[in-house]
Amino acid sequence: MSQSDLEGLLEFHWMMDMLQTVDVGIVVLDTNYKVKVWNGFMESHSGLLPSEVRDKTLFSLFPGIKQDWFMRKAKPVFALKTRAFMTWEQRPYLFKFPNYRPITGSEPFMYQNITLSPLVSATGVVDHISMMIYDMTDIAAGKKQLESLQVAQSEEQERRRRTVR
Predict the structure, then answer these.
(1) Is 19 a residue whose pLDDT tops 60?
(2) What is the 3-state secondary structure (H, E, C) of the chain?
(3) Strands of 35-38's sheet, edge to edge?
(4) Domain-by-domain residue ranges, the chain?
(5) Which InterPro entries would you find in this protein's record (predicted)?
(6) Do strands 25-30 and 84-86 pair parallel, antiparallel, or not at all (unpaired)?
(7) Which residues fall within 8 angstroms of residue 38, CB to CB, at 6 or more apart?
(8) pLDDT tens-digit profile of 58-96?
(9) CB-based burial of residue 111 (10 Å sphere; 0-12 exposed, 13-18 middle, 19+ buried)?
């Protein structure tokens, strides 16, 4: 093995380690929505090993995901090579993972932002898409608390106005 081959192998190894340990869910799907990559974040939060999900459809693994809706979101990613986004404000989660954070333990599930990105092959065709799942629970909980405080403050101001009259 040449020095450059060894360096390439070492680089591949640390990139795979990073993929597995990053605090973001990474899933790669083929055109039939079969799982090809399932990183450590997804394993940890779903309780499913990569070997258990590989080559199974996303919809058979997670029947709560509305297939028609998800396919409408993913179709332009495959066809137009463009990204698509799903935010927790539009839909709180794609994967109903329990909330594991002790600070924001008041939320029953993990709020998520999702990015779908095309993975263009060497031939220029999009045969796979990646999903990146971001845990937005802290932000969602903070926004909900802020909104609750704003409502309470508004109600208090209205109560004071009525009392003054």
Answers:
(1) yes
(2) CCHHHHHHHHHHHHHHHHHHHCCCEEEEEECCCEEEEECHHHHHHHCCCHHHHCCCEHHHHCCCCCHHHHHHHHHHHHHHCCCEEECCCCCCCCCCCECCCCCCCCCCECCEEEEEEEEECCCCCEEEEEEEEEECHHHHHHHHHHHHHHHHHHHHHHHHHHHHC
(3) 35-38, 25-30, 126-135, 112-120, 84-86
(4) 3-137
(5) PAS-like_dom_sf (IPR035965), PAS_fold (IPR013767)
(6) unpaired
(7) 26, 27, 48, 49, 50, 53, 54
(8) 999 999 999 999 999 999 999 999 999 999 999 999 999
(9) buried
d(CA 144, CA 27): 29
Question: Which two three-digit tokens encode residue 43?
Answer: 């394993």
CATH of 3-137, one of 3.40.630.10, 3.40.50.360, 2.10.220.10, 3.30.450.20: 3.30.450.20
- At residue 144 the predicted structure's pLDDT band, cuts being 50, 70 and 90, is confident
Token pair for 155 = 């109600």
Per residue in 111-124, pLDDT tens? 999 999 999 999 99
